[in-house]
Design goal:
Elements lengths: L1 E2 L3 H7 L3 E6 L5 E13 L4 E6 L5 E5 L3 E4 L2 E4 L1
Parallel strand pairs: 1-7
Antiparallel strand pairs: 2-3, 2-6, 3-4, 4-5, 6-7
Length: 74
């Protein structure tokens, strides 16, 4: 398990990571290889780039359910 407050530190430390999050429609999105391009609003949202497709998405930090295979807890 990893606490949600530690994700910011891990993202800065790691060159790439895997992440699972829930999108607006309630679907679970799984990204095996991504990087963080930026943080916004005091760390509430982050832009991630999917390395395989090149897609960039803005996600809310509270929507993250898994980070590098570890369950994320609030």
């Amino acid at each position: 398990m990893i606490h949600i407050s530690q994700i910011h530190k891990e993202v800065e430390r790691l060159p790439e990571f895997s992440i699972r999050f829930v999108d607006r429609e309630g679907d679970i999105i799984d990204c095996r290889r991504c990087i963080c391009t930026s943080w916004h609003s005091s760390g509430r949202t982050m832009n991630i780039k999917f390395l395989e497709s090149g897609e960039i998405r803005k996600i809310r930090r509270v929507s993250i359910i898994e980070f590098n295979g570890q369950r994320v807890v609030l």
